[in-house]
C-alpha cells in the first residue's frame, strides 16, 4: 500500500495542475504517487476453491447425492439456475457450520430433481427442487433440537427462509430462491402436522 500523502499536499498538486503550472515531465511520478494514495486498498481476492467445491466445506457432490436417485436410476443433475442457488446455499451452510462450533455438517438431502422430489414424498413447491434447501444433522454439536435452538435466534442475521425441526430426525434449512424475500420461519414438523416454533 502506498503511503497516503497529506491532503494539503495533494490539493496543492491539483491546484498547480489546474493552473497549468505543473510540469508533468518532472512531477508525474509524485502526482501518480499522490493519486494512488487516495485510492482505497484493493479487496483481497478470495482463495480459489478446489474443483467440485461450492464453499470451503461443501461440495456439489454432497449437495446433489441421493441414494434414492441412484437406486431408481434417476439423474439428479441440477440445471444451471439450481447450481447458482446451491452455491448461495453452501455459503449459508458455511455460516451455520461456524455458528455450530465449526463441526462437520452431515447433508442427507440437498438438490432434488422434480422426479426425485415426488419419489421421496417432498412438498410440491419444495425449495429442494430450486437448489435452495438442505436437510442435515451436526451430531458433534448436539441433537437436532439443540442445533435448531442454536440457529433459531439468527434467522434474520443469516437470511434463512425456513428452519424446520423435522420429525426429530433432521434440520431442514431453506433460503428464499431467486429474488423472493425470506420469511424467517421457524417450524416443527411432527407426525404430519406443522406448528410454528420449536418444542419447549
Structural descriptors:
Muramoyl-pentapeptide Carboxypeptidase, domain 2, 6-stranded mixed sheet, 200 residues
Compact summary:
Helices cover 38% and strands 17% of the residues. The protein contains eight helices and eight strands, in the order ααββαααβαβααββββ.
Write up this protein.
With 200 residues, this protein is an alpha+beta fold. It folds into two domains: 7-38, no CATH class; 53-196, 2-Layer Sandwich (Muramoyl-pentapeptide Carboxypeptidase, domain 2), CATH 3.30.1380.10. It is 38% helix and 17% strand. It has helices spanning 7-18, 24-38, 60-64, 67-71, 80-99, 114-119, 144-151, 155-158, and strands at 53-55, 58-59, 106-109, 133-137, 162-166, 170-174, 185-190, 193-196. Strands 3-4-6-5-7-8 form a six-stranded mixed beta sheet. Strands 1-2 form a two-stranded antiparallel ribbon. The N and C termini lie far apart (54 Å). The model has no long low-confidence stretch (mean pLDDT 90).
Question: Secondary-structure map with pairings?
Answer:
Layout: H1 7-18, H2 24-38, E1 53-55, E2 58-59, H3 60-64, H4 67-71, H5 80-99, E3 106-109, H6 114-119, E4 133-137, H7 144-151, H8 155-158, E5 162-166, E6 170-174, E7 185-190, E8 193-196
Structural class category = alpha+beta
Proportion of residues in β-strands: 15-25%
- SSE order, as H and E? HHEEHHHEHEHHEEEE
Classify the helix fraction into a percent range. Answer: 25-40%
C-alpha Rg (nearest Å): 25 Å
Continuous helix count: 8
Number of self-contained structural domains = 2
Strand order, main sheet: write it out.
3-4-6-5-7-8
Which topology of the largest domain does CATH recognise? Muramoyl-pentapeptide Carboxypeptidase, domain 2
Question: Overall pLDDT, averaged?
Answer: 90
Amino acid at each position: 500500500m502506498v503511503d497516503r500523502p497529506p491532503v494539503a499536499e495533494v490539493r496543492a498538486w491539483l491546484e498547480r495542475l489546474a493552473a497549468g503550472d505543473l510540469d508533468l515531465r518532472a512531477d508525474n511520478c509524485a502526482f501518480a504517487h499522490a493519486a494512488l494514495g487516495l485510492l482505497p486498498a484493493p479487496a483481497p481476492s478470495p482463495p480459489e476453491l478446489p474443483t467440485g467445491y461450492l464453499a470451503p466445506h461443501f461440495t456439489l457432490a454432497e449437495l446433489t447425492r441421493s441414494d434414492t436417485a441412484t437406486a431408481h436410476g434417476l439423474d439428479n443433475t441440477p440445471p444451471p439456475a439450481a447450481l447458482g442457488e446451491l452455491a448461495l446455499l453452501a455459503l449459508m451452510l458455511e455460516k451455520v457450520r461456524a455458528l455450530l462450533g465449526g463441526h462437520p455438517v452431515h447433508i442427507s438431502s440437498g438438490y432434488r430433481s422434480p422426479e426425485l422430489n415426488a419419489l421421496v414424498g417432498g412438498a410440491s413447491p419444495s425449495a429442494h427442487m430450486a437448489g435452495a434447501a438442505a436437510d442435515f444433522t451436526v451430531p458433534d454439536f448436539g441433537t437436532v433440537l439443540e442445533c435448531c435452538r442454536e440457529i433459531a435466534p439468527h434467522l434474520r442475521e443469516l437470511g434463512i427462509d425456513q428452519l424446520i425441526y423435522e420429525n426429530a430426525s433432521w434440520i431442514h434449512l431453506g433460503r428464499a430462491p431467486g429474488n423472493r424475500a425470506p420469511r424467517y420461519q421457524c417450524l416443527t414438523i411432527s407426525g404430519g402436522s406443522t406448528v410454528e416454533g420449536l418444542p419447549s
